[in-house]
Automatic annotation (TrEMBL):
Gene Ontology molecular function: any one: oxidoreductase activity
Name listed for the protein in its UniProt record: Acyl-CoA dehydrogenase family protein
KW Transferase (keyword) present: no
InterPro entries registered for this protein in UniProt: Acyl-CoA_DH_C, Acyl-CoA_Oxase/DH_mid-dom, Acyl-CoA_Oxase/DH_mid-dom_sf, AcylCo_DH-like_C, AcylCoA_DH/ox_N, AcylCoA_DH/ox_N_sf, AcylCoA_DH/oxidase_NM_dom_sf, Mito_Isobutyryl-CoADH
Length: 404
């Protein structure tokens, strides 16, 4: 974590460094996308600006960044490099959850923060499994060992930043007669952890979302968090300590709401970069049969206006909900699922329209627009499926209608 000038709050100091960081990320984004190499220098820049630990709670000596701060930061980072923004998002989400429910043991979290003062420390929750479906028990298995700890075996997929993770919060079930589900904290350098380089997606190519294979990885007993018997896994449960948070909102629901809006901010940042590039193209582009740039034609202005309207609506939705989630308003927390779905749709639609307007230049690898399109399309890997969001929204609407 970085030091802060006396006349600035830690959050303000971190936000002040955002423009420079975004410029640095944008300068290297094409190279990392082309070669599918992990952006270590970009992560270092985010860390040095104090952005990677923005959501460390004040009780731990951190800035105490809110969700409103987080979506602002991630939208800007998304403008520079979507892969860096995505990996940053997962680390910020873990620190924010710790600030709310203090799930990590004190000694372990102090160790993480000490390491964060020396350099960037990436943390992420590893939940998805190959072939896994919503509502299923995790296939990753935790068995007791002769020390009283656990041995973790399984495979996790879509693990953004896999090759650079210092800590992995792995969702697993125990092999007990009545299985429990919880989160097992694993050091990335632990014996038995292997990164299988499976990530070869169309977009987010620098995010290193590889599979992580765990082969009897030892986890001390104190690093097994929130072990709970879950009769119906689809009903919730993240393995986090603390059943309820402020305002009577379940901790798991706040965790989901943070994730919904944080990841939505990333894709909106990418879409904003696409819109900015389109504006520059319309200012410069002058076909042979015209005397002025394309931006002078009503058809192109209206099309650009359509893109702008979509993005303004999505940004206002995300930015408006974030402070309400910070206040733990139940109605706002319940709306973040539909909000992330609408924001993602708006981002994808905006970039697709930009590509259509520009024609061949928009699809050329000499320009970043085609990368923006690939990135917003690939971001869906990390979102709740549309069907699940819509089903939950429909159920909630039916429940409201059934009330007297």
């Amino acid at each position: 974590m970085t030091t802060t000038p006396a006349d600035q709050s830690p959050v303000a100091a971190a936000l002040a460094g955002l423009p420079r960081v975004v410029d640095l990320l944008a300068a290297r984004a094409e190279e990392h996308d082309r070669d599918a190499t992990f952006p270590y220098q970009g992560i270092e820049a985010v860390h040095e600006a104090g952005l990677l630990t923005l959501t460390v709670g004040r009780r731990y000596g951190g800035p105490g960044g809110t969700l409103a701060d987080t979506v602002r930061v991630l939208a800007q980072l998304g403008r520079g490099d979507a892969s860096v923004a995505l990996v940053t998002a997962f680390t910020l989400l873990r620190h924010a959850e710790q600030a709310r429910v203090a799930a990590w043991p004190a000694a372990g979290y102090r160790r993480l923060l000490t390491e964060s003062r020396r350099g960037p420390v990436l943390v992420s929750t590893l939940h998805a499994e190959p072939g896994g479906r919503p509502g299923e028990l995790p296939a990753t298995l935790a068995r007791r060992d002769d020390t009283g700890g656990w041995r973790l075996t399984g495979r996790k997929t879509y693990c953004a930043g896999a090759e650079a993770l210092a800590w992995m919060a792995v969702t697993a079930r125990t092999d007990e007669p009545e299985p429990r589900i919880g989160t097992f904290l694993v050091r990335g350098e632990s014996e038995g952890v292997e990164v299988d380089p499976t990530w070869d997606q169309l977009g987010l190519r620098a995010s290193a979302g590889h599979d992580v294979v765990l082969d009897a990885v030892r986890v001390p007993a104190e690093l097994a968090l929130g072990l709970t018997v879950v009769k119906d896994p689809s009903a919730g449960g993240t393995g986090s300590a603390g059943d309820r948070a402020e305002g009577g909102v379940p901790a798991a629901e706040l965790t989901r709401a943070w994730r919904d809006l944080a990841l939505a901010a990333v894709v909106l940042g990418v879409a904003r970069s696409a819109a900015d590039w389109l504006v520059r193209f319309l200012h410069r582009g002058t076909p042979a049969d015209l005397t002025g740039p394309l931006g002078g034609l009503p058809r192109y202005r209206c099309a650009l206006g359509e893109i702008e309207a979509q993005l303004v609506g999505a940004e206002e939705l995300v930015n408006g909900l974030a402070p309400r989630v910070d206040r733990a308003e139940p109605e706002a927390v319940a709306r973040t699922g539909p909000a992330h779905l609408l924001a993602t749709r708006a981002a994808v639609s905006a970039v697709q329209q930009a590509v259509t307007l520009t024609g061949n230049p928009g699809l050329s690898r000499r320009h970043p627009l085609e990368r923006y399109l690939r990135d917003v399309l690939s971001s869906r890997v990390h979102f709740t499926p549309d069907e699940a969001v819509l089903d939950a929204a429909g159920r909630a609407a039916l429940a409201r209608g059934a009330r007297p």
